[in-house]
Task: inverse folding
């Protein structure tokens, strides 16, 4: 019996030892799955000590938690599949604090999560941890929690994804003091690529401003559509560079919705540009129908994408709309390239062909970089990034498009200039024809008046003169003085009328006719007078047309000068020198007593009339003394 008691005591002791040993092993194992937050000096990834689960977006975690089944580790180590984007991801992890004081630390789940809620498990129930965000930029994606000294706990994180295919779960714990540097470090991985994007966007901005300036100058809608295309695609790339891999609501909005909208609007402007640039309605009806279909397709896609994004919980549908639209645009690009090869002689099509081909090739390279990263990661610098290839293709496309625009605009300007010059010449011709018609009408009227004066007035004045001569011959010594005056006046009026008729006759509108008329008049005027008249005319007289008013005013000025010489000079010789070159010069010189320049009143209005007549036709009159009076009449011809 005593031996039995001893055996029982021995067995009991062994059981106690084994039990204590098992508890010690279990405790060590539990501590092995805990993360000591007091040891996190910078940041620490802990995917291996975490478990995960997914629930529906409408499920209440606090209600279904007891029945929730977790999977060790992360279910998806890369991008989250589309079918899980609209679900909530639940992460479960253990943490303890080996320090003697309270330690706080930030939890960062990765990208992109628009809602993050922390819970602490206490007595198999969930206690909500109030959301505490850092007082810095990019703070939406971080949550602070604390543990007292020597304390441990199990935490749950409930997170809602942004509706994008770029979601990645990479949970990390970040030391409070290291958080600003951690955010900079996350962004610095993309700074080199972003720098290239900023340079690219700067070049696009210059092209946009150049296009807008051309549009304002010529109101050419092609430049406006080109600017819209470059603006939306450049804006999309710029906002991605600024806001990607940031945890702000603006980043979530751009990543989840706006980037596709901006791309779609840019493509719509691209199609409007192609229609206008190629005049597809008149020159390429097939392309006109193709791009009209494309514009309708994109409009419907953007509308359905918006409705599905905001009013549907099916991200597969949202992603299907986006991918289907991009594939359709890719097919349209291939169709355009094939069509361009058929009409290769069209230079404008060649500009667009090379632009589309550049974008197509580099976009394919960019897609390969996304699908097969190992092929591109060994490449140096920026060439390991997929976005760089797309930006290069887009830049080359825009440069070629702008070159095509300038080529077409230059041709249009040349054509418009020719049309304006032609129209101007036509207007001048019409004005000239009107002037000719008016001139012909004036000439006809002058000739009619000249003929009427010659036939009617000339015959009448000749009859008066003839009858006065007959009366004087009959009366002989008893002739009244009035009859002599009538005869003299009739003779004077007849001479003046002949001069007027001569000036009005368009057949006399030549320089040669004027010189001949002056010569014959001067010689006849001084005939039967004590003054000898000599007229020197040039041997070669240029064939120049002189209007009737110019001929008349020059002749009347010569006539007035000859009349003054006969009445006042007391000369015995008058010399008339006529010179015809760039101007017509008539120099009348006598050998008389000259002219008293201080007493010109003796000549009445004659000298003033000469000056006025010459000025009215653009000529000049100069009077001087040089061994007699010298009068120089000058008219530019």
Result:
């Amino acid at each position: 019996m005593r031996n039995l008691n001893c055996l029982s005591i021995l067995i009991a002791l062994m059981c106690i030892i084994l039990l204590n040993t098992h508890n010690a092993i279990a405790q060590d194992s539990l501590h092995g799955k805990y993360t000591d937050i007091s040891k996190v000096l910078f940041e620490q990834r802990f995917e291996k000590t975490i478990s995960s689960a997914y629930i529906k977006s409408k499920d209440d975690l606090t209600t279904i938690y007891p029945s929730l089944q977790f999977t060790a580790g992360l279910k998806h180590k890369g991008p989250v599949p589309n079918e899980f984007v609209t679900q909530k991801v639940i992460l479960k992890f253990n943490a303890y604090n080996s320090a003697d004081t309270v330690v706080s630390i930030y939890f960062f789940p990765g990208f992109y999560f628009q809602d993050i809620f922390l819970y602490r498990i206490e007595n198999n129930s969930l206690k909500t941890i109030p959301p505490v965000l850092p007082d810095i930029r990019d703070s939406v994606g971080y949550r602070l929690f604390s543990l007292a000294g020597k304390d441990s706990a199990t935490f749950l994180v409930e997170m809602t994804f942004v509706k994008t295919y770029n979601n990645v779960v990479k949970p990390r714990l970040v030391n409070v003091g290291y958080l600003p540097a951690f955010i900079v470090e996350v962004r610095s991985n993309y700074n080199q690529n972003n720098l290239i994007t900023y340079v690219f966007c700067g070049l696009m901005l210059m092209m946009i401003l150049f296009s807008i300036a051309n549009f304002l100058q010529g109101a050419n809608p092609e430049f406006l559509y080109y600017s819209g295309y470059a603006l939306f695609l450049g804006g999309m790339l710029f906002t991605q560079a600024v806001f990607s891999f940031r945890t702000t609501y603006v980043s979530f909005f751009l990543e989840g919705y706006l980037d596709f909208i901006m791309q779609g609007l840019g493509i719509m402007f691209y199609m409007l540009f192609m229609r206008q640039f190629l005049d597809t309605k008149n020159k390429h009806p097939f392309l006109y129908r193709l791009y009209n279909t494309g514009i309708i397709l994109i409009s419907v896609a953007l509308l359905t994408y918006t409705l599905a994004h905001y009013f549907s919980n099916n991200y597969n549908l949202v992603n299907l709309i986006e991918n289907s639209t991009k594939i359709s645009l890719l097919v349209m690009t291939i169709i355009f390239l094939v069509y361009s090869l058929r009409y290769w002689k069209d230079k404008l099509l060649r500009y667009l062909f090379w632009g589309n081909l550049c974008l197509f090739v580099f976009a394919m390279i960019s897609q390969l970089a996304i699908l097969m990263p190992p092929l591109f990661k060994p490449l140096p610098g920026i060439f390991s990034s997929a976005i760089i290839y797309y930006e290069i293709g887009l830049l080359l496309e825009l440069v070629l498009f702008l070159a095509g625009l300038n080529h077409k605009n230059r041709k249009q300007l040349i054509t418009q200039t020719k049309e304006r010059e032609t129209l101007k010449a036509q207007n001048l011709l019409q004005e000239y024809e009107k002037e000719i018609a008016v001139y012909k009408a004036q000439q006809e009227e002058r000739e009619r008046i000249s003929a009427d004066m010659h036939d009617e007035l000339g015959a009448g004045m000749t009859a008066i003169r003839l009858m006065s001569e007959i009366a004087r011959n009959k009366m002989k010594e008893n002739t009244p003085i009035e009859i002599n005056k009538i005869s003299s006046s009739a003779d004077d009026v007849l001479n003046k009328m002949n001069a007027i008729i001569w000036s009005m006759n368009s057949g006399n509108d030549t320089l040669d006719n004027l010189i001949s008329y002056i010569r014959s008049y001067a010689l006849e005027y001084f005939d039967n007078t004590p003054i000898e008249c000599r007229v020197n005319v040039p041997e070669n007289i240029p064939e120049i047309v002189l209007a009737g008013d110019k001929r008349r005013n020059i002749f009347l000025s010569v006539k007035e000068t000859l009349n003054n010489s006969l009445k006042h000079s007391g000369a015995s010789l008058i010399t008339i020198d006529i010179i015809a070159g760039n101007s017509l010069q008539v120099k009348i010189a006598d050998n008389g007593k000259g002219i008293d320049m201080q007493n010109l009143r003796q000549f009445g209005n004659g000298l003033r009339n000469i000056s006025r007549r010459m000025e009215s036709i653009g000529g000049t009159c100069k009077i001087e003394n040089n061994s007699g009076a010298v009068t120089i009449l000058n008219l530019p011809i």
